Amino acid sequence: MSAEYRVDLGAFRQNLRRVREAVAPAAHMLVVKDDAYAHGLETLVREARDEGVRWFGAFDVATGAAVRAITGPDARIFVWLIGGADDLRAGVAADLDLGIGDEALLDDLAALSAAPARLHLKIDTGLHRNGIRPERWDAALTRTAELVGQGRAVLEGIWSHISEASDADDDDARALFLAARDAARAAGLVPRYSHLAASAAGFARGEFREDLVRVGAFSYGIRPAGGPGEAELGIEPIAALVATVTAVGPAGVHLDIGSLHGLPSALSGRFDVATPAGPRRVEAIGATSTAVAVWDDARVGDEIAVFGRGALRSATDLAELIDTIGEEIALRVSPSIPRVYRG
Ligand SMILES: *Cc1c(COP(=O)(O)O)cnc(C)c1O
User: Fold this and answer.
1) pTM for the whole thing?
2) How far is the CA of 21 from the centre of ligand 1 (A)?
3) In the prediction, which pLDDT does 58 show?
4) For residue 233, is it within any domain?
5) What is the distance in A from the centroid of ligand 1 to the CA of 233?
6) Are residues 259 and 203 part of one domain?
7) Domain holding 213: CATH number?
8) Residues with pLDDT less than 70, the chain
9) Per DSSP, what are the bridge partners of residue 156?
10) What is the Cα–Cα distance from 131 to 114, expressed in whole angstroms?
11) What is the DSSP track for 115-136?
């Protein structure tokens, strides 16, 4: 296939510095789920570690263990998809920080003979994805206090996830969060870390930063759909989908990537790509090929920047054309397209 997903590591480091500055004095937890938003886990984690990132948000235990293998012992690695006792055991073995959003895991932990687990209890503040419901919170605190008393667990954190869709909803969520933390303290538990914000609230709303801000999208230069631009946020896209022309005909120039490689066919006719002759319209996106409006001396091998860094449109620009979010466009870039790193 004649395409690559080109990731600029210098731009990534620049975004990491920007995020660090924007969320300070809270620490940046770099969220690396979905293969670091499809940029490639291993290279990006290594780069971030060298740039001074000390917290990683890995989603599931297998990814957390993979991040641990890359970072070595110094990093803190937070995971929040934990399936049961086996996952707990594996998480403790890999020295992970465990996000607990389900009371049943506390029972699993009680039955486990392992080193003390580092827990971050999750209060459901309205998203209902996972998280302990407010009416069950006191029971979960009692259970946690028992585990702590038995030396099986340390309560490292209290956390939640918020919608970042409206300030009013987020304010309500935060009120629930603060009440949950007060209850933990009243139960004699002293969580060291509070965290509830991701990219958007972490940048825009100081009172949501607490100790850690879990930032994925902005670290990779993906701005929010319908929200502030990259320049305003001080971030830049780090990756570009670049394809080379595989055939030239009177009707158009062909690329051998299509919807199966991640370009939504709904974008047919709706955006321009950067060609050696300037902007040209993408006329049709098929399953495995794309047609672009022809130019005079077009040749096989000419490079086209389809979207992202150095192209005419960012992932979020394309997303907005079809009412989705930039992450969706970025995550679709097929693993069969090689990731190539520069800088
Ligand atoms: C994905 C995710 C994040 C990061 O969100 P961004 O908007 O990409 O910064 C933070 N926290 C949790 C729990 C997530 O699932």
Assistant:
1) 0.97
2) 18
3) 98
4) no
5) 17
6) no
7) 3.20.20.10
8) none
9) none
10) 24
11) SPEEEEEEB--S--SS-B-HHH
